[in-house]
Structure formats: structure tokens, C-alpha cells
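To the wet lab folks,

You asked to see what we're planning to order before we commit. Fair enough. Below is the target structure as C-alpha cells, and below that is the sequence we designed to fit it. If anything looks off to you, flag it before the synthesis order goes out.
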């Protein structure tokens, strides 16, 4: 038996001896060969086309609208373009499920532009009117015309860039070529995982770590086709345009790590199975992850400065949202009161950082006697939910009073969702590493909430823990901002409501 990764005498891997390859479908990320990622490309196209179309339309009628100087025109274009892009990102226009689906992407873009238009109207008519003495900002009708022109230009831009992007994808501009070393259960898991992605955006090539000369290896019972005959790593890299190498062997004892060095020396990233899986799925898969890998892997950096910046962000955002939503909260409070004359708020003990308990504050959405038989998870279409409560849960407005918990320092804007002590005890006993989610404060929203639907089972709790561990491992203040923005999509499309 001969190792498939045997090097030539010149120490350039003779991967001509890696004769078997299978193609399947992975996902999307920044390519090594100076080509932008698919998401970055679509976002860049949107920004250029939106700003360009806005500039063309507004400039054509700027004198009639009452603009006095080019600076005023530029201020409007920058305001509307930046808001349009921010809400397009928040609505999920650049998520994998929207990248290659025109209708999904356009639907989300329309929602994003509608919200952006409303906010742009307020900024243009009130904020910019204080900065510039121009009729365009002081007249409500002219401000509305500007917003409608800008929104229309953005929609036209979005409907132009998406067919252009799909045409580029069909020509494989964004396709990554990933060499998977291994044909066992780990390699099969990657193949099955990436088959759900779009073939235009990525392709996997499988090779066996060792094989019998005339016997083609199999991946999950499927034969694989041979690699091209080459004499070196560089030649194989040029022919297949390999962007990443992933070690997915089931037994590392038979692998010669020296044979991976030519890839590394040529600038091709080499990942172990768990690191690659984490990067691609956005979670720490507990099925494959051993505790020692978590100990030695990078991440879990949460220093004094990070905590300080996170706290400043928490106070700023929670206070701003409370002031912004105060009139709506008053109306909701009266609606809850008049439905059954019960209490407006619901306070319940939850577990946060280091196992410390606190009283979470929510709008009451269930009957007063909802837990007369003891604590239980809420379920889909729960009969204990009131009529007002059903709307509040679907829209997630019942969570807004938790902003008070954030101001009090009991919660953060972003973090693992807090559970009740009785459930925490159960889950600690049933799920490995569950206690790690209490390393930081519980959050109003979180990485798990924007990536996984609502669930009320141990299996759901374990899956959410995998997302929570990814957040803990890869924390940054910028990621917190990103999660807050993406929560907009969950709220608007009622994803995960119960």
C-alpha cells in the first residue's frame, strides 16, 4: 500500500499519484486568487449601481427639486445609498440562500428599500434640513420626491445587478476548488453537507490518503474520477485552481504531514477538518469536535477592552431603541391590560453569565395561569398564548422590555439566549459543553437566533449551543453589530417565531 501524497525527489509533491477525484458542491467565501467573494461582489455591484443610478436621476432634476449646491446632492446620495446597503445586508440579501435565487433576493431587497425609504425621509426632511438651507429639504413634497427617486433607482439597480451576478456565477467566476484529503466518514460528511450548496459557487475534489494501485476509492459508496496527470503541486494547482486543502482523514496516524508543506509553501490554505467545518457552517459541530481541539484552537478572546466596548454598545443601542419605541410600547401595554386585565409585564428567573440568575422582563403573552402545571417550553401554536400575545410573539415585540435588563447590566444586546434554571439543569446533564454558553452575559438576540429557527427540544438546544460556541469562539464588537443588523431579517420575516 502506497501513500497517495508521496513527494517527488525535488520535494514538489507528485500528486500525479493522487489519481481519484470526485466533484460535488460546497459554498461561498473569499477566493485566494485575488478574485472577490460572491457576497462581496454582489454587494459591490449594488453599491456602485445604486449610487450611480441615484446620482443620474437626482442630478437630472436637481435644479427643479431645489438643490442649491452639489454638496447637498452628494449628501442625499450618500445618505440613501448607505441606508439602502445597510438594510439590504440586514434583510439577508447577501446570504447564501439569496445569492443564486433571484426572487428571494428581490423580495428581501424590496423590504429593505421600503424601510430605508421611510428612514431616509426622516433624515432628509428633518436632519439635512437643519444642515442645509435648501428648498429640497424643507418642503415635504420635494423630500418625498427625492426619496421616491432614490428608492426607485435602488430597485432598478438591484434588478440589474442580480442577473449580472448570476451570469458571472454561471461562468464560474466565484467557484472555489477545494481539495479534500480523505474518503472516509469525514469526507463523506463534507460531501453531503456541500451538496446542498450551489455548484456554480464551489466544487470539491476528493483524494484518498492511501490506496491500492488499481482500485478506485469510494466516497460514501460512490466511485470518483481520476485527477489529471501532473508532476508537482504547482502543476496540479494550476490545472484545478486549488484554493484550499482540507485534511479530512479519519485516522491521522497514516498521514504524512510533510506532504502538505508544498501546498502551504505555495500559499494555499490548509485546514484541519474541524476548522474547515466551523468556518463553512458558522457553528462548532459537537458531533465531530473534541474538547482538546477547542482548547488548542484559536479564539475565545474576550479581554477587558472587548468587554468595555461591548458594554458601551449595549447601553447606546438599548437606550436608543427604548426611546424610539416608547410610544409603541405604551400602546401595547394598554392592549395587554385591556385584553384580560392581567399584569402587563412578565418577570421570570433566567440564568446568565457564570450561572448567575436574574429576572428577565417581557411583555406578558400567555394567560395568567399558563404554568399552573409547572415549567414547560413554549411550543408552536401554544394554546396558552393570548390573542395579543400571538402578535407580540410573531413580531418579537414581547422581547423589547429586555432592553431594561440590558441597561441594568443583567443582559447584553448580543449573546446566548437565557434559559430558566430548571431547563439549564436538565440541559447541562444531557448536552456536552452546555455550561460554556454561560461564559458571557445572556443576550436579547444572538448568533443562534439569526441562524436557527425556534426550537423546544434537547436536539434544538444542542444545535443552538453549536452556534453559541461559534459566537464565543469568534467574538468581536463588529460581529455584534452584524448580528444586530441581521436580527432585522428575523423580525421582518417572522423567522423562528412561536
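Sequence we intend to order:
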Amino acid at each position: 500500500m502506497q501513500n497517495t501524497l508521496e513527494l517527488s525527489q525535488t520535494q514538489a509533491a507528485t500528486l500525479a499519484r493522487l489519481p481519484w477525484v470526485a466533484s460535488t458542491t460546497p459554498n461561498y467565501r473569499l477566493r485566494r486568487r485575488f478574485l472577490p467573494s460572491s457576497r462581496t461582489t454582489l454587494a459591490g455591484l449594488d453599491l456602485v449601481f445604486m449610487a450611480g443610478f441615484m446620482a443620474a436621476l437626482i442630478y437630472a432634476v436637481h435644479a427643479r427639486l431645489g438643490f442649491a449646491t452639489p454638496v447637498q446632492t452628494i449628501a442625499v446620495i450618500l445618505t440613501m445609498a448607505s441606508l439602502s446597503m445597510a438594510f439590504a445586508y440586514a434583510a439577508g440579501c447577501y446570504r447564501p440562500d439569496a445569492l443564486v435565487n433571484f426572487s428571494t433576493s428581490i423580495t428581501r431587497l424590496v423590504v429593505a428599500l421600503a424601510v430605508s425609504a421611510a428612514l431616509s425621509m426622516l433624515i432628509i426632511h428633518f436632519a439635512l434640513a437643519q444642515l442645509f438651507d435648501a428648498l429640497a429639504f424643507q418642503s415635504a413634497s420635494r423630500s418625498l420626491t427625492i426619496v421616491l427617486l432614490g428608492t426607485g433607482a435602488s430597485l432598478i439597480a438591484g434588478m440589474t445587478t442580480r442577473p449580472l451576478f448570476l451570469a458571472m456565477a454561471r461562468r464560474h467566476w466565484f467557484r472555489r476548488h477545494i481539495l479534500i484529503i480523505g474518503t472516509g466518514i469525514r469526507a463523506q460528511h463534507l460531501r453531503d453537507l456541500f451538496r446542498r450548496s450551489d455548484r456554480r459557487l464551489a466544487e470539491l475534489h476528493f483524494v484518498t490518503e492511501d490506496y491500492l494501485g488499481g482500485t478506485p476509492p469510494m466516497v460514501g459508496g460512490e466511485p470518483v474520477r481520476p485527477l489529471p496527470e501532473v508532476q508537482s503541486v504547482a502543476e496540479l494547482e494550476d490545472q484545478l485552481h486549488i484554493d484550499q486543502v482540507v485534511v479530512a482523514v479519519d485516522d491521522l496516524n497514516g498521514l504524512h504531514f510533510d506532504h502538505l508543506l508544498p501546498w502551504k509553501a505555495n500559499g494555499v490554505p490548509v485546514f484541519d477538518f474541524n476548522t474547515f467545518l466551523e468556518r463553512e457552517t458558522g457553528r462548532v459541530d459537537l458531533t465531530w469536535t473534541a474538547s482538546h481541539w477547542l482548547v488548542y484552537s484559536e479564539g475565545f478572546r474576550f479581554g477587558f477592552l472587548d468587554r468595555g466596548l461591548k458594554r458601551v454598545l449595549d447601553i447606546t443601542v438599548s437606550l436608543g431603541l427604548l426611546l424610539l419605541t416608547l410610544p409603541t410600547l405604551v400602546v401595547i401595554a394598554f392592549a395587554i391590560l385591556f385584553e384580560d386585565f392581567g399584569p402587563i409585564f412578565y418577570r421570570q428567573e433566567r440564568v446568565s453569565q457564570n450561572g448567575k440568575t436574574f429576572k428577565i422582563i417581557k411583555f406578558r403573552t400567555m394567560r395568567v395561569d399558563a404554568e399552573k402545571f409547572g415549567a414547560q417550553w413554549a411550543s408552536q401554536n401554544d394554546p396558552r398564548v393570548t390573542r395579543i400575545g400571538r402578535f407580540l410573539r410573531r413580531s418579537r415585540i414581547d422581547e423589547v422590555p429586555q432592553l431594561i435588563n440590558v441597561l441594568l447590566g443583567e443582559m447584553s444586546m448580543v449573546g446566548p439566549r437565557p434559559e430558566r434554571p430548571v431547563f439549564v439543569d436538565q440541559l447541562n446533564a444531557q448536552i456536552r459543553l452546555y455550561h460554556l454558553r454561560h461564559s458571557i452575559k445572556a443576550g436579547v438576540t444572538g448568533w443562534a437566533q439569526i441562524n436557527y429557527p425556534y426550537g423546544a427540544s434537547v436536539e434544538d438546544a444542542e444545535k443552538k449551543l453549536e452556534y453559541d460556541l461559534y459566537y464565543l469562539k469568534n467574538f468581536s464588537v463588529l460581529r455584534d453589530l452584524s448580528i444586530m443588523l441581521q436580527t432585522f431579517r428575523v423580525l421582518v420575516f417572522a423567522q423562528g417565531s412561536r
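Structural context that might help your review: The chain has three domains: 2-35+174-281, 38-170, 304-492. The first helix runs from residue 38 to 60.

Thanks,
Computational group
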